[in-house]
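Q: C-alpha cells for this one, please.
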Amino acid sequence: MLTIYRRLLWLYPKTYRREFQEEMAEVLGQLHADSSKTCLLARFRFYVRESAGLIAGALRETWHQSVMRRFTVGNNFRFPKATWILMTLILAGVISAIRKGEAISVSLPHDNPAIGPIHPANTVMSGWVMSVLIMYAVGLVVGGVFFLVRRTKLGQMSGEN
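A: Here is the predicted structure, written as C-alpha cells:
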C-alpha cells in the first residue's frame, strides 16, 4: 500500500509534492502500522478512504495552483499608499454624481411634456457619507500614529524593527 500511495502522490503539483511528500508518506506509514492490527474489512476501508482522500486532495491542489492562482494576488503584492486615498475620492465623486442625478430627476416635471429648466440641487452630502469620510480620516490619523511609533525609538525598543 505504501508503494501505491507514494505513486499516487505524483498526482499532486510539483511544488506541493516537494514540500509535503515525505511528511504525508510518514503519516500514512504510521497510520498503516496502526491499521495492520485491525480486521481485513477495517483495513480495506482504511485503504479506500486514504486513497480517495489523496486523489481528492491532489485534484483540489491542482485546481488551486492552476486555476485559482490566476485570480489571487501574491503575498508580496501591495497597493501604493495613494491608492486608498484615490479610491475614497472616486467613491465620493460617484456618490455625489448619484445624488445630483437624483436631484435632477426629482426637479423634472413628470406630467408636463415640455421640460422646464433644471434647478440646481442641494449639494450637501448625506450623513452616512460624512460618517464614512470621518471614519476614514480617523483611520488615517491612527495609521499615521502607528507608522510614526514604529519608526521611532519606542518602536525599535519593542523589537518591531
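A few notes: The mean pLDDT is 76. The radius of gyration is 31 Å.
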